[in-house]
Write a structure and sequence with these properties.
Distance between the termini: 104 Å
Structural class: alpha+beta
Shape: rod-shaped
Mean pLDDT: 79
Strand content: 25-35%
Largest sheet: 8 strands, mixed
Length: 456
Amino acid sequence: MLDKFNINAFISFGLGFILMWLSEATEAHMNYTAKPRVVLPPNYVKEIRPPSKKGSPVIVDFSIFVVDINSINVEDMDFSDTVYIFRVDMFIHQRWLESRLEIPDDIFEEGDDYVTLLPEVFENFWQPDPYFLNSKIAEIATLTHKFTSVTLYKNKTVRYAARMHAIIACQMEFQLYPMDIQVCPIYIESFSSNNQKVKLRWSDSGVTLNPELKLLQYNLGQPLELEESDGYMPEKVGNFSRLTVYFRFERQIGHHLIQTFAPSSLVVMLSWFSFWLGLDAIPGRVTLLVTCMLTLVTMFTGADIPPVAYVKALDLWMAGCMLSVFAALAEFVVVKVLDVQYQYQVNRIPKVLPMRISNMEKGQCATVASWEGGAVRSRKATQTPTTPGQTSLQGNGGPPKPARRQSLLSVAWTDTDTGVEKIMWREIDKVSRAVFPILFFVFVLLYWPILLMKSS
């Protein structure tokens, strides 16, 4: 009898436990499936947009909070589209009025005028479908779940927020690099609903930036320019509401001043020291100039320069520096050629001592050695009376020929004031010590004002 009682008790306990578990499971399932029906009417169709005045579209307010912008790398070039890309991490917010909702007051906590809905509930709502027109990738951030939230207000306003990142394509211009200013737009457009059904507009907050946002090579210009427009999309055959935000990136010049402009200027100045080295130090002079040229080539080929086909401002600076060093090297070749000619002229004239003329007063003829164009000719001198007590020597060929100094006018001459011999290659070196720095400084004075004026 006792065993039968225990068996019945055990069966009753088991049946009670099973019924309680089924009841809880059924209640949980009913709570899960009934939640959308709390705010959605029976005839609600999520594919149909909220009702509005005849002929007016549904207004969707849009705002963005930019958390971070990854540094733009000019080497990250998409050669298929010839554009550059950068990544934006941001929070997006959308707000619109859904007048079809039936909102009971008991779903709000005391003192609140809003309630946060689960994502599963929001999937049953009508949703706008904006997208980033010029993005390569745009996706919502996830960890264990998507970082989204839906807030429902008592006035039937729906607010959708999401943390997302987008890789944006931007067409950049580098004519003024590295003093360039890049303007990169982000286009946000409704995908399937034209401007007669959905209109996007910027909210009062618009686009805001993280105050701690800093870029390595750029300064982010403020304020941001916002636009609202309607764009015709031939692919979708219609006009669609579009929002545009323009980011203004101003490149920081400090890095390039330290890494490019200052070192290249010092290398050019170093090449001027060759003008103080005489031709007796030919190995040192050649080594100095060639080293300066190779240093500039290595410096500019290793620089972080955008791979574009047109000429940039930095290319002009490179050309000016390399042309200055090349001109110094060409100047050395010229002075060396002039020195060789000078040495040739000096060494080809034999050193002949003039013969002593004797007995001129006696009327006798003597052999005189005289210069004619660097050659020596032996001839007899004749006595030609001029004035009493004077005699003159005159050859058969007429007046005397130019002296030795006059035959070297191309490479050397004698200063008429001081009587000092001037050698042309030395004079060229002296003039180059002043001309080369002056020309380079003129180039610098023209380069920077024009570049600053264009970049501003």
